Structures are given as structure tokens and as C-alpha cells.
Amino acid sequence: SASYYPSHPPPLRRLASNPPELATTRPHRRVEAASSTTGPDLQAADREPPRVPGKSPSTWSIEEVMQFVRDADPLALAPHAELFRKHEIDGKALMLLRSDMIMKYMGLKLGPALKLCYHIERLKQGKH
């Protein structure tokens, strides 16, 4: 049994080192959550001057909506600006958009959809 015992602990150690597999999935989730916070977006939104001062967003043309999307988040949303032309989203339609519509019909992932909704919400409150 002496020759058997030394070979027995390594499998136990391997089992004990398996949970890091589980642990590695958890930090990834935390990292994703951290990266999807509105911190950087908030700063970007505060820096941006309003695109069309004095003009109600619901009267915007498709082009103005696309410009708003580009300015709202140049990294996350600008690549999707063309979708607003494809789907004919003008100011009125922009004000009616919800995250589920943005994902289902425009094909955006949850992160960009939520960011867009955040910017639309600020627009409705007159903070953009």
C-alpha cells in the first residue's frame, strides 16, 4: 500500500485544482459587468455638445439620428450608425426604440443595445 499511496494524492490535487476552472468563469462575468458599466459613456456624453441645439430630438432626420448615435459612443455605437438608415429610424422612431427591438430587429448585442437605450433615455430627459 506504500507504493499505492504516493500515486493517490495527485488525483486529489488535480480535483482540488479543477475548481479554478469554475473560478475562471466567475471573474470573466465580473469583467464583462465592469466593462458594460456606463462610466466611460457618462463622461463621453457629458463632453459631447448637443448635435442640434434647440431642435427637439423627435423632429430629427435619419441623418441627424445617425450623427447622434455616432457621437453618443464612438466606440460601441458608431459602427451601428448605418443600421439607423437601413431601418429608417428618424427622431420619432428613435424615441420609441426599446432594447428588445434594437436587438431583435436591428441585430445589436445586449451591451450596445443597453448603451443606446441609456443615451436615448438621457435625450428624453433633455440631458444630451
Based on CA inertia axes, which overall geometry fits? globular
Q: Using DSSP, what is the number of strands?
A: 0
Mean pLDDT: 76
The profile of the biggest β sheet is: none
Order of helices and strands: HHHHHHHHH
Point out poorly predicted stretches: 23-50
- Give the radius of gyration: 24 Å
Structural class: mainly alpha
Strand content: under 5%
Question: What percentage of residues falls in helices of 4 or more residues?
Answer: 55-70%
**First-to-last CA distance:** 75 Å
Q: Treating each run of at least 4 consecutive H or I residues as one helix, how many helices?
A: 9
Break the fold down into its secondary structure elements and pairings.
Layout lengths: L3 H4 L1 H9 L1 H17 L3 H9 L14 H11 L8 H6 L4 H6 L2 H8 L3 H15 L4
Helix pairs in contact: 8-9
Fold and architecture overview:
This protein has 128 residues and is mostly helical. The chain is built from 9 helices and no strands. The protein has helices at residues 4-7, 9-17, 19-35, 39-47, 62-72, 81-86, 91-96, 99-106, 110-124. α8 packs across α9. It is globular and about 30 Å long.
Outline of this structure?
The protein is an all-alpha fold. The protein has helices at 4-7, 9-17, 19-35, 39-47, 62-72, 81-86, 91-96, 99-106, 110-124.
List descriptors.
about 130 residues, mainly alpha, about 65% helix, about 0% strand
